[in-house]
Design goal:
By secondary structure, this protein is of the alpha/beta class. It has nine helices and 20 strands. α3 (102-112) packs across α4, α3 (102-112) packs across α5 (146-159) and α4 (117-131) crosses α5. It starts with a strand and ends with a helix.
Length: 407
């Protein structure tokens, strides 16, 4: 069952060279404006219980699309159907009366979000409790910080029990603990069958919360599909644009490029699966552009499949020089004598750096050398830590510790 359907959706705004031209156009009927298409020819569907993420640069049209979905703007072209009650957080403080207290604004905004007065009255305590505003709930909201606005706006929007929840960048404000609390509530909302439309520059949040995603670029859908794939496409484009501003090669190539990444085991053989405690080596080959004066360096990050960065090593920080294997080709290997992480899927991110300017990454490759880890033992957690059991400072063998039942 579909929750949202958009076909050929477009939104155009009139742009005037001078403010008075709007009045002159109304008086004499002569067209004095040009159309700016914030969204054009957007078609997509979201199933009930689905979660759709929106990614893209500032000014790409994401907020306009969200305003259309929330009913805060009307389409210029196309068709948009949203089934059920909608609740939206489009702009912090939107809909709040600055002179009213937080408690009074709960009633004001709650009704605007589609709840009846009786529903709002029955959920005030829940909203106040989730917002954690304490005594500030009875203070005028003009005294609130942006983080306090978020707490209240999010608490009201989610308490409305909407069929479709629309969130625009709200989780970028507030402390990390409350952000986690919000994401947990959103995840439960989707699990219960609610439909989520979520816009954020935090690609990890989009990947975590959403199954599907749209990349909006200059008002059009540049890519649509699985959230992880769309986010990676967008990140690749953003990273390429960033790197193009930092490199100054003479032949149009990256000053120091990654040309090979290989993962091998203790015997030097290619590997895609290891056991916890095995030795592991990642080999990296780099090529420097002709006539470049870059001092070759390399950074390697170990990343778990859920996006957690487990470890980062850098030749510059460790004061290591790369081995030259030709005029402008270099080799380096990062060796783990005992890989201690437990079961899961991992990959490496590899970046080249100029050791004299280590803060600038010249070439970045993500998702390299994917591999999995199997833990054959019964210990569990994140990683294996060297340890021993003791009695009064004397080491106890595993057999004695288990047999005695006390450590």
């Amino acid at each position: 069952m579909r929750s949202v359907t958009a076909v050929g959706l477009g939104k155009a705004y009139r742009r005037y060279d001078r403010p008075f031209d709007r009045a002159r156009e109304w008086i004499d009927g002569r067209v004095r404006h040009e159309l700016f298409w914030a969204i054009q020819d957007a078609s997509f569907e979201v199933e009930k219980g689905g979660a759709l993420g929106l990614v893209g640069d500032n000014g790409a049209g994401k907020t306009t699309l969200l305003a259309l979905l929330a009913g805060a703007a009307t389409p210029t072209t196309g068709e948009l159907v949203v089934f059920g009650r909608r609740s939206a957080i489009l702009e912090l403080g939107a809909g709040f009366h600055p002179e009213f207290t937080g408690r009074e604004n709960i009633h004001l905004v709650g009704v605007a979000q589609g709840m009846s007065r009786a529903e709002v009255a029955g959920r005030v305590d829940e909203i106040v409790d989730f917002s954690e505003l304490g005594t500030f709930i009875d203070q005028p909201v003009r005294t609130y910080s942006s983080g306090m606005f978020l707490r209240l706006a999010f608490s009201i929007a989610t308490a409305a029990e909407p069929d479709v929840l629309i969130v625009d960048e709200a989780l970028a404000v507030g402390d990390q603990r409350f952000q986690l609390k919000c994401t947990d509530r959103i995840a439960r909302f989707v699990q219960r069958g609610g439909t989520l439309i979520f816009c954020s520059h935090n690609l990890y949040q989009v990947k975590k919360l959403c199954r599907q995603a749209l990349w909006i670029d200059h008002g059009r859908i540049a890519a649509a599909g699985r959230a992880a794939e769309v986010c990676d496409l967008y990140a690749d484009r953003a990273r390429a644009r960033l790197l193009s501003g930092h490199t100054g090669t003479t032949d149009g190539s990256t000053e120091l490029a990654v040309i090979g990444v290989e993962l091998v085991d203790a015997a030097g053989l290619p590997v895609s699966q290891i056991e916890t405690g095995d030795a592991l080596t990642i080999r990296v080959r780099l090529r420097r552009a002709p006539a470049s004066d870059v001092q070759p360096g390399c950074a390697v990050g170990l990343v778990r499949s859920d996006g957690v960065v487990c470890y980062v090593a850098s030749t510059e920080l460790d004061d290591v020089r790369l081995q030259a294997v030709g005029p402008d080709e270099f080799h380096i290997a990062l060796h783990f004598p005992e890989f201690s992480l437990f079961g899961g899927s991992y990959h490496f991110n590899v970046a080249t750096i100029d050791s004299r300017r280590p803060l600038i990454m010249l070439d970045v490759r993500e998702g390299e050398a994917p591999f999995s880890v199997v833990n054959p033992k019964t210990d569990w957690g994140v990683c294996r830590l060297p340890h021993e059991w003791r009695h009064d400072g004397t080491q106890v063998s595993d057999r004695e510790a288990v047999g005695d039942g006390r450590a």
